[in-house]
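W.,

You were right to be curious about this one. When I first looked at the sequence I had no strong expectations either way, so I just let the prediction run and decided to look at it fresh. Below is the sequence, 177 residues in total, followed by the output.
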Amino acid sequence: MFDAIADNYDFLNHLLSAGIDRRWRRRAIRSLALTGSERVLDLCTGTGDLAIAAVDARPGAARVIGVDFAAAMLRVGAEKLRQRQLDRSVTLVRGDATRIPLATGSVNGITVAFGIRNVENIELEPWLAIANSFGGSTDKDKAAGATDVGFAGLTASATELLLEGMRRLDEETRKPE
């Protein structure tokens, strides 16, 4: 399905969220408290908007690896990276978010945005093993609730803050007008 809508995905995402998706990304990346030296893994990267936000932040991530299963989404993302001259900072890889081919401790943080809703049988243990948090260890208890929301940054230092913010945002959007 995502390969079929790849060329229109960004437009539809921005339109259907009334642009709020951009704010969610900025807030998520800001909650990571990047220093400019981090390696970030962006799972379910799609067209790479969250990966781009991670390197565009000031300070931004030094390197981002975006993983997605949809080749056409990655193609659109790769073109965006080329146009913005970010293809040296962000690498897009076709892969499965449940089988990540990275070594333990190889990244400082993991992000996952809207694509999390399409991942079945989410197990945080493998994700957390790949990430060494900014302080050098991950806090599995804080990250345990990350699957309760559709958008989460999974680092020990950011998870609690981000989850609370996303829960509040979710509650606000569910209130009748």
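Here's what jumped out at me. The chain has one domain: 2-174. And, maybe more interesting for your project: The two ends are 32 Å apart (CA to CA).

Coffee later to discuss?

I.
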